[in-house]
Amino acid sequence: QVQLVESGGGFMQPGGSLRLSCAASGSIFRIYTMGWYRQAPGRQRELVADIARDGVTNYADFVKGRFIISRDNDKNTVYLQMNSLQPEDTAVYYCNAGLGLRAVWGQGTLVTVSS
């Protein structure tokens, strides 16, 4: 019903920036909240940031002041601008769409931060 495709992951040195994109397709009218989660090796998946349909945002403490989440409702796309990247940001980043009763996940995009 809803499909999510992430892009923009890759390799970056500490202090650099990347922008992740997540394009949604299918039953777009069912999506109320979109967000980003990440999972590092040996760690549980954790919330990075999410954004509601009206633009209200929520950030994890460890990314406040560094990352910015935004969405383009006309393009059905959510973005994560990641600045001042650090090695601890290395993880697979997953796009998430909240449909009210259930959530849909993308396949994930790998972000590696290393010198």
Describe the structure.
The protein is mainly β. It is 0% helix and 55% strand. The chain has strands at residues 2-7, 10-12, 18-26, 33-39, 46-52, 57-59, 67-72, 77-82, 91-98, 103-105, 109-113. The chain starts with a strand and ends with a strand.
Question: What secondary-structure arrangement, pairings included, does this model have?
Answer:
Elements: E1 2-7, E2 10-12, E3 18-26, E4 33-39, E5 46-52, E6 57-59, E7 67-72, E8 77-82, E9 91-98, E10 103-105, E11 109-113
Parallel strand pairs: 2-11
Antiparallel strand pairs: 1-3, 3-8, 4-5, 4-9, 5-6, 7-8, 9-10, 9-11
Helix content: under 10%
The separation of the N and C termini measures 41 Å
Q: In terms of structural class, how would the helical and strand content be classed?
A: mainly beta
H/E element string? EEEEEEEEEEE
> What share of residues are in beta strands?
over 45%
The mean pLDDT is 94
Characterize the overall form.
globular
Low-confidence spans = none
The radius of gyration is 13 Å
**Major β-sheet annotation:** 7 strands, mixed
Strand segment count = 11
Number of helices: 0
Brief rundown of the structure:
Helices cover 0% and strands 55% of the residues.
